[in-house]
Amino acid sequence: MKKLSVMLMLILLIGLLSAQKFDPDFFQSKTILCCFTKTAIPNIDGNIDFQIVDGVVQTGLESFDKLAKEYRIVDLKPFYSDVRYKEWNNNGAYLQNTYRIMLDSDAQIDAATEALNKDPNLIYAELEAILRSKFVPNDPMLGQQYVHARINS
């Protein structure tokens, strides 16, 4: 029984250690999603002023700019183009403060994600997942269901 418990613990530990590592089959290449804090982007529109200097993003946020230089962050793009309810937030994470961080290469994407998660100007940073259909429905009446075409499901 002890051997079984130890084996299960080892399998669980290995699974946890290998979680969320970059894999081009599951994550967008050279892309990290992040959400800036309200203090980092003090305007309600979520606009962050940045410049590209020597091919690297500079925002004026000292800790972020240091990471941008270290991990070669080459562009910032808003994740949501239009946010209707700008006051809505989830524990300080405003939709309009969510950005795609574009890196120069995938070489250090895992290290960059980890370092960005520790930046005080960011609420979170994570790899951008590629969403795919997992299965094809086996419903013989699927073709007669009009709602799927209307809602693009």
Describe the structure.
The chain is an alpha+beta fold. The chain contains four helices and eight strands, in the order H-E-E-E-H-E-E-E-E-H-E-H. The strands form three sheets. A four-stranded antiparallel sheet has the order 4-7-1-8. A two-stranded antiparallel sheet has the order 2-3. Strands 5-6 form a two-stranded antiparallel sheet. The longest helix has 16 residues. The radius of gyration is 20 Å and the shape is globular. The termini are far apart. The mean pLDDT is 85.
What's a quick, concise take on this entry?
The chain has 153 residues and is of the alpha+beta class. It contains four helices and eight strands.
Secondary structure: elements and pairs:
Layout: H1 2-17, E1 27-36, E2 51-53, E3 56-58, H2 62-71, E4 73-78, E5 89-90, E6 93-94, E7 98-103, H3 109-117, E8 122-129, H4 147-151
Features of this protein?
alpha+beta, two-stranded antiparallel ribbon, 153 residues, four-stranded antiparallel sheet, 26% strand
**Distance between the first and last residues' Cα:** 47 Å
- The oligomeric state of the chains shown is single chain
- Give the structural class: alpha+beta
Order of helices and strands: HEEEHEEEEHEH
β content, as a range?
Answer: 25-35%
The largest sheet is: 4 strands, antiparallel
Quick one: overall form?
A: globular
Strands ordered across the widest β-sheet: 4-7-1-8
Q: What percent of residues adopt helix (DSSP H or I)?
A: 25-40%
Q: DSSP helix count?
A: 4
